[in-house]
Each structure stands twice: as structure tokens, then as C-alpha cells.
Amino acid sequence: MFAVTGITGNVGSVVAQSLLKSGQSISAVVRDKSKGDAWAKRGCEVAVADIYDAATLTEAFKDAEGVFILIPPMFDPKPDFSEALAVAAALKSAIAAARPGKVVYLSTIGADAKETNLLTQHTIIENALRELAVPITFLRPAWFMENASWDVAPAQIEGVIPSFLQPLDRPVPMVAAADIGKLAAEILQKTWAGNRVVELEGLVRITPYDIAGAFSRLLGRPVKVQAVPRESWESLFLSQGMQNPTPRIRMLDGFNEGWIEFERGASSSFKGTTSLETVLQSLINRANKR
Asked: Confidence band (pLDDT; 50, 70, 90) for 265?
């Protein structure tokens, strides 16, 4: 049996679907039992657990051949990253007590960065889990193509999308959630020893200009991309309700300045196969159904 957290999301659902397709049994780990109803109808077990609660996580991970861990996104962490520290402590305690056969932790590109930024929360959790005796793969995907969901409305309505990734012609490593989920499921069904890092991106790196061009083709209208001035980021994020925008700003700086990159470079990363156009078309279809 494989325990899958984040099963209701883009990545976790693909992990579960891929495992089921391979004939594996699944335990859907959810915060609210009703969120697991759809998976229960597919023959999956359902475990209710909170990512901050070691006791419920221990029960959810007990007797699992493998565990896939995806933590909820934290876009506005406290300055001391107390949320990540709490998650790290709960996960470490639960895995140590439950002793699953292996773990795949969904980390991120840049988890090895030396400068503090939004992705440091994954650095904190990786460092805590590395102390365990359980085999763990830290799956570090690139920038999610699905982040372009924020661009669908501006592309459709205004024909202009804003970009925090700059300069606009700089290629950025990106990957589709479907490719992340499929690779995570493949890894879970393999055997390895100790800790290891697996890095994943798409077949080609993508510029903001590429995103605008793809929207233009899919929408059948011109779509331009416009850089959001760096000096406006802090006031903009604060106006949107963020309390501590510095980590997010430094993450964006890391991509733009090149110090957020794969630990072993592009040549050694796994490559997904889902195209940008496929992801954007899915995002457009979803937006149009609302």
C-alpha cells in the first residue's frame, strides 16, 4: 500500500492515478474525510491526517510500502519560517515512528540555494528528513507551468500578461504537474538506499516571451508580456495582503539572477514530456468552465 498526501491536487492526483494504473493499492491521506470520498469510490483507503500533527501522520504512514509527501504551499511564511519548522518536526517524528518502506518528498529546484528565499522552507524540511534512516528521494521539480493559471484572465481580457520572471527573454526551467506526478509514482515503485535527489524539468526551457506566444496561438489573438518593475514588487505584494513579501521577492530574484538552479545543472535533470501549450490549453479550458 502507498500513502499519498496532497491527493486532491494537480500532482498528488496524478501520483495516485499512476499507482492505481500499475495495480497498486492506495491510501488517500486527506485533512478532511469528505475530500477522500472520490478516492474511496475507486477502492482506495482513506486516512485523515494534518501535516502539522505527528500523531495522525504516523497512523496514516504506518504499514505503507511507500509514502508520497506534498506539503501545502506557503506563499507568505513568517520571517522565522516557523510553519516549515513545524511541518519538518511533524514529518520527521511520523516517519521515524511509522517506518514506511520509502518516502518521496516533493521538494523544489533551489532547495540547495544558500540565500534565504521562499523555497528555504523545503531546505528546512529536507535537512530534517535527511536525519532519518528511511530511504528518501527528494524530488526537485522546476517552476510549475501551472503557475501560468494567473495569466489566463489577463491574456483573454487584456491581451497582456505581467511577468515577474525577467529579463523576458531569459529561459527558465519549467515542468508540468502531470510529469511530476508520473515520475513520483515511478520512483515510489523502485528500490534505493539512503537519501538521493532527483531533479525534473521539461524538454526545453521557457521564456516569458514563449508563454505569451503560446497564449497568442491558443487564443487566436495577440498576447504580449510585460515585466513588472522590480521596485514595485514589495508594495504590490503588501497591497495584495502579504505580511512578509521578502522571501517571495528573493525567490524571484533567484530565478532571475540565476542562483536558483538545479544542483547538478540541466544536463543531469530528468525531462518531462508535457508541452507548455498542453498545460495552457488545460488552464484555459478550466477557466472557461467557471
From this structure: confident
